[in-house]
Amino acid sequence: xxxxxxxxxxxxVVSIGxxxxxxxxxxxxxxxxxRLILELxxxxxxxxxxxxxxxxxxxxxAMLLYEEVRRSFIGLRxxxxxVREIASGVGRRRITVGATPALASGIVPRAIARMDDDxxxxxxxxxxxxxxxxxxxxxxxxGLATLPLEHENVHLHWIGEAPCVAVLSEHDALAxxxxxxxxHLYNRxxxxxxxxxxxxxxxxxxxxxxxVSTHARLETNTSLxxxxxxxxxxxxxxxxxVTAYGIPVQGTVVRPLAEIIPWVWSVLTPxxxxxxxxxxxxxxxxxxxxxxxxxxxxxxxxxxxxxLQKRLFRAGAEDKALGAR
Length: 325
Fold this sequence. Notes:
By secondary structure, the protein is of the alpha/beta class. It has helices at residues 4-16, 19-26, 30-44, 60-88, 101-106, 108-114, 128-137, 199-209, 223-231, 241-246, 277-293, 305-324; strands at residues 49-52, 55-58, 93-99, 119-125, 142-146, 154-163, 165-169, 190-193, 219-220, 236-239, 252-256, 262-270, 298-300. α1 (4-16) packs across α4 and α6 packs across α11 (277-293). The chain is globular. It starts with a helix and ends with a helix.
């Protein structure tokens, strides 16, 4: 049987990277922490750490377990905060939000700032897959995730769609163009995110459909990193518009694309939890900000999810077919 002490020790060891550091953080002896980790491995039947002398390295199984443990600890901290708030009698309102890095950085803080309320918000950047799981499990009050998504046990409020843009150094030869065509990128270095199941998939389809041969000098997991690389003249970033317009980077310019590369994202809440006024107002604030901030933004009703996902899946299928030729 797993115990909370074992899980707590595991969380500390993976987060800090050593038994010694975890023991100091937990205010326990190193031998006590080592014993708890050994008990956890015996209870689960998993090898969680590879040991080499005094050094340890988390295994792949450990990292898979850690992601679930990390989400649980975030939820536990939220419970502890709520208990303190109730006990203090202050009665502050709190919203927990999970969003992709682009949405967490480029739109949620601005939307919160628009709300003239004394609301405490916990904002966590995570992958779209993690957002969907956290909403479905009730670990967060509000989630913002890109399509495609699994929508069981989540309530979908609306779907946002906007065209991707090009971000390039202000000194780039194309910076003087009002609109950039993908054909302008022939034999250029293109910077974009690496996940083929989301933005990267539709970008690749658009490039191949335009007959454009490009080079990928840098692949990254966030649009902001691609934009920063573009500022350093490492290439032209093809990114979603929230990062481009929501996090302006000095030394770069943003240009619309002649071809439409859709970026589609959704607003989710737990299906089993009644929607409170604060979350509802934040959702509307996010929608209003997106309309003001992002050129070409369009808000779809939940009923359009299947249609939009089919379009994205079709783009992925086309990408595979083009790659096989």
